[in-house]
Amino acid sequence: MDEEDGMGRRTRDTVTVACANCGGQDAIQIEITLPDDTEVRFNSCHRCEHRWWEAGSSVIDLNSVLEKARRR
What we know:
Layout: E1 2-4, E2 10-12, E3 28-33, E4 39-44, E5 51-55, E6 58-60, H1 62-69
Antiparallel strand pairs: 1-2, 3-4, 4-5, 5-6
């Protein structure tokens, strides 16, 4: 959930993301809304550099993200 930090900056709750590849607990997650209004999450593991995309509760491949992101 977005909140203001008292200085006018937006902050988000911290989410711990576990890497499905190595089990590391320090992956980052970035939420993105694509041009077709699909909400996706990009994840990247600091330990093993594994990267993956999610939409809802499913893992999706990069080609799907790129297709949805393409402006028509």
